[in-house]
Amino acid sequence: MRGILVATSPEGVIGKNNTIPWYYSEDLKRFKRLTIGKTVIMGRNTWESLPIKPLPERRNIVITRSSLEEVECFRSIDEAVETCEGDIWFIGGAGIYKEAMDLADCIDMTLVPDSVTGENCIYFPKIGNEWKGSEKKPLESGSKLLHRIYTRRV
Ligand SMILES: NC(=O)c1ccc[n+]([C@@H]2O[C@H](COP(=O)([O-])OP(=O)(O)OC[C@H]3O[C@@H](n4cnc5c(N)ncnc54)[C@H](OP(=O)(O)O)[C@@H]3O)[C@@H](O)[C@H]2O)c1
């Protein structure tokens, strides 16, 4: 399994000022549950934005043209993926999501209700016709968050 894991605002925003401009513990708990024991691949900005790094109990991989001493780095997603065994989650940001769309089997998307606009917004890339989205359903019963999974059209 190679999946894209993302939460977006109604405008398709994933981040602003190198942070995620909302907080939902149910989303964070789900992120942890899905990624524990797996490989997570992220861009350098996302790495820098993490309050706790590395993400514990996961293989953390950062894509960067530089090299960081404190974490495993690769210069391209392809190079990183070649070294991976087992499940991979691509966890952002925008450039990683865009490239990972050619490699991923699914896009696991949480939709938060918070409207985010203005300068320095980072957006999820356009989802092409090769992807088919499931119906939106509450993330949990009674949740304000919705969830949908995109899979590749056959
Ligand atoms: N809502 C969500 O689910 C979610 C998830 C993750 C992140 N975020 C948010 O998204 C924002 C960060 O995203 P971002 O798009 O600004 O940055 P990013 O993708 O995390 O990092 C960008 C950097 O990663 C490296 N990189 C990315 N793609 C590359 C490639 N194909 N080849 C080589 N290097 C590559 C480059 O680093 P170098 O410059 O070092 O070469 C690039 O400058 C933050 O606000 C974060 O909080 C949101």
Mind explaining what this structure looks like?
The chain has 154 residues and is of the alpha/beta class. The protein has a single domain (2-152), classed as Dihydrofolate Reductase, subunit A (3-Layer(aba) Sandwich). It contains four helices and eleven strands, in the order ββαβαββαβαβββββ. It has helices at residues 25-35, 44-49, 77-82, 94-100; strands at 2-8, 13-16, 39-43, 59-63, 72-74, 88-90, 106-111, 121-123, 131-133, 137-138, 146-152. Strands 1, 3, 4, 5, 6, 7, 9, 10 and 11 form a nine-stranded mixed β-sheet that branches. It has a two-stranded antiparallel ribbon with strand order 2-8. Bound molecules: NADP nicotinamide-adenine-dinucleotide phosphate. NADP nicotinamide-adenine-dinucleotide phosphate is lined by residues 6-7, 14-15, 18-20, 42-46, 49, 63-66, 75-77, 91-96, 99, 122. This is dihydrofolate reductase.
